[in-house]
Amino acid sequence: MDLLLKFIKFGIVGMSGMIVDFGFTWIFKEKLKVNKYIANSIGFVTAATSNYILNRVWTFKSHEDNIPLEFFSFFTVSVIGLLINNLIIYLLTEKMNVKFYAAKLIAIGVVVIWNFFANYLVTFRS
Question: Which regions span the lipid bilayer (predicted)?
Answer without folding.
Answer: 6-28, 37-54, 74-93, 105-122
